[in-house]
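User: Structure please.
Assistant: Input sequence and predicted structure:
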Amino acid sequence: MHIDKRYKFPKDSSASILTAGLLGEQYIGLDGGGDDHLLQDGDRLMITQSAVVLEKIIGSFCMARRRKPARKREISVAIRYSWGQQ
């Protein structure tokens, strides 16, 4: 990866694969660290984060919604129904 010489990043910077918009292009985002030494030609980033897959997020959200416990009102109605108080 080529980074313009105008931009200086500390050695402990991190890289993430990001998406432009909901279904846009992917790009690499760099977050600067706090090290006093700067990245030099040929250095490697040790802290990285892979891309977030939108389908996985949606799937996780749907599964969490299915596992959500019944609401208080739904429980109350079920209890009244079981006691014969409709």
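Residues 14-82 form one domain.
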